[in-house]
Structures are given as structure tokens and as C-alpha cells.
Design a protein that fits this description.
It is a single chain. The protein is of the alpha+beta class and 300 residues long. It folds into two domains: 87 residues, Phosphorylase Kinase, domain 1; 187 residues, Transferase(Phosphotransferase) domain 1 (Transferase(Phosphotransferase), domain 1). Helices cover 35% and strands 17% of the residues. It has nine helices and ten strands. The chain has a five-stranded antiparallel β-sheet with strand order 1-2-3-5-4. Helix 8 runs antiparallel to helix 9.
């Protein structure tokens, strides 16, 4: 891993400091001399450039981010390469992610959780309906807020884009990854075409964590967590057990978003947004469909 920006020479880019680092790449704050602005630069680690599949995934991520033009999703400007590196230049978010905020504040108040819910719902409604994009890795670390209070989704490295074929069928990816704490049951099973309902489940798991300071299934191994998302006998407690100030409407919304069988889950981002607005206004929900199990048990 490269930690010193002097070790990386990129045309028209002056690296300032490292923002984040994952298994395949690192992200840097930088000055783009050709644009004369501060940007973020994502650099694919050298050992992955020789692997065609890893390189194609990196290119696909950049392409998707470049095509999606929405204020709630971090924008990528262009893909570039040198003799040594593949990298892309993207919008710099001067702020922090909610994973880091959780470490400092332990939990968020309901009104902030609703704002996050509505912002993500609007962004992914656009991405799904206009580009067929499923993010596949919604979690606190991938939701950011900038200095103006605007919430933005980042890291589409695992995203799955529907590819419509001439005969109307759709490709199913060879494998779909996600983060075990927030992954939807259908991502674990990996036997169906994903749609927006996978991200709706992950956002529900994220909101549960943000509101309570606890993951849905804490103190488990990754394999145990993935099994718990799928197992009908595994249900987390009502969030009000940990945060009594949360409203019943908010907890009802999470229960509906976290239904294990996607056929009984909240079906669309527009529905998620509408439910969130109803919670905000104090409007009571009608009883949801019975016969479906949620990963969160409603009731104290």
C-alpha cells in the first residue's frame, strides 16, 4: 500500500492526503491542475491492474458513477491511466461519513435518520429508474454529508446494473458481494436478479444501526450475520428497547424495509420516501401485509 503521495506521479494531479483505503484501491484528496479544483482521486492498487476482472470492475464503477447525474450521488468525472496506475477523478466531498459519526456520537436522532432515509431514497430512485442500478453496499460508511449538510452516496464498487438483453432476459452476476452487517437475504442467496428491494433492506439495516447505535445482528461472525439475515427465527429487538424516544411510525417503517422475503418488503424507493415523510408528519400506517417475517421484531 502506498501512503506517501510523493510515491505516486499522476499527470495534472497533485495528491494532498489519503482519505481512505480498501482492499483494491485508495482514495486521495487532490488538486486537479487541469480543472483547477479540489477533487477526490481513486487509484486502483498495482497488484489488481493485471487482473482483467478486477480492472473491468474498476472501470465499470467509474462508468456508472459518470453516467448517474444526481446531487445525491458522488459524481465521477473521468477515467485515466498511466504506465503504472489506473485511476479516476471524482467529486470531492468536504465532510464525513456516518460510520465515522457513529463512532463519535453512538447514535443519531430520529429526525436525522429520516433526512438520511429521504436523501438516499431520492438518489437511488433516480439511479434505479433511470440506470437500473442497485448499489449493493448501502452502509453508514458509504453515506456522506458535506459541509453544506447535503447527503451523498458514494462507493459504487459493488454496484449491479441491469443489462437488458434482446430477448428481454437479464444477466445475473456470477457473484454479488456486500457487507455482512447490512446485506439483504437475496444477496446472500445469490440466485435471483437483484432489484431496488435489495438496497431498501440494506438501508433499513443501516437506519437501525444509526438510530440505535447497534447493528441488527451484533457480536456475530460474518457468516453468522449473513445466516441471520436469511433465517426467519433471527429477529432483532424493537429499536425502542435501546432508544425509547423513537416513534412507533419510525419503527414500523424499519420493520417493513427489513422484511426477509423481498415480495413482502417495501417495493419501491418512492414508497420508502413516502413512508418516511409520513413518519415525519406523524401519520399512522395501515397494518402491513401479514405472513412475512422481518429481521426486526416490532413491539416492546
Amino acid at each position: 500500500m502506498i501512503n506517501n503521495p510523493i510515491q505516486i506521479q499522476l499527470p495534472d494531479i497533485r495528491l494532498i492526503n489519503k482519505i481512505d483505503e480498501g482492499g483494491m484501491s485508495s482514495i486521495w484528496k487532490a488538486m486537479d491542475l487541469s480543472r483547477n479544483e479540489i477533487v477526490a482521486v481513486k487509484i486502483l492498487n498495482k497488484e489488481f491492474t493485471a487482473n482483467e476482472q478486477d480492472l473491468e470492475q474498476f472501470k465499470a464503477e467509474q462508468k456508472t458513477m459518470a453516467e448517474i447525474d444526481h446531487p445525491g450521488i458522488v459524481k465521477s468525472y473521468e477515467l485515466r491511466k498511466t504506465d503504472s496506475f489506473w485511476y479516476y477523478v471524482m467529486e470531492y466531498v468536504d465532510g464525513y461519513n456516518f460510520g465515522a459519526l457513529l463512532q463519535r456520537k453512538q447514535h443519531l436522532i430520529e429526525v436525522d435518520c429520516l433526512l438520511i432515509c429521504q436523501s438516499v431514497a431520492l438518489a437511488l430512485d433516480y439511479a434505479w429508474n433511470n440506470h437500473g442500478v442497485v448499489h449493493c453496499d448501502i452502509k453508514p460508511d458509504n453515506i456522506m454529508v458535506n459541509s453544506d449538510g447535503e447527503i451523498k452516496l458514494t462507493d459504487l464498487g459493488l454496484c449491479y446494473t441491469y443489462r437488458f438483453l434482446k430477448d428481454g432476459r437479464q444477466d445475473i452476476p456470477d457473484h454479488v458481494m456486500g457487507t455482512p452487517s447490512y446485506i439483504s437475504p437475496e444477496q446472500v442467496y445469490g440466485d435471483v436478479e437483484l432489484d431496488c428491494r435489495a438496497d431498501i433492506y440494506s438501508l433499513g439495516a443501516t437506519l437501525y444501526h444509526l438510530a440505535t447505535g447497534r447493528m441488527l445482528f451484533p457480536k456475530m461472525t460474518s457468516d453468522e450475520m449473513m445466516k441471520a439475515h436469511c433465517d426467519e427465527l433471527s429477529q432483532s429487538k424493537d429499536p425502542r428497547v435501546y432508544r425509547p424516544d423513537l416513534t412507533e411510525g419510525f419503527c414500523q417503517m424499519l420493520e417493513a424495509m427489513l422484511v426477509k422475503d423481498r415480495n413482502g418488503r417495501v417495493p419501491s424507493w418512492s414508497d420508502v420516501y413516502a413512508m418516511s415523510r409520513d413518519v415525519e408528519r406523524g401519520i399512522k400506517f395501515k397494518p402491513r401485509l401479514t405472513g412475512f417475517i422481518s429481521s426486526m421484531k416490532l413491539g416492546l
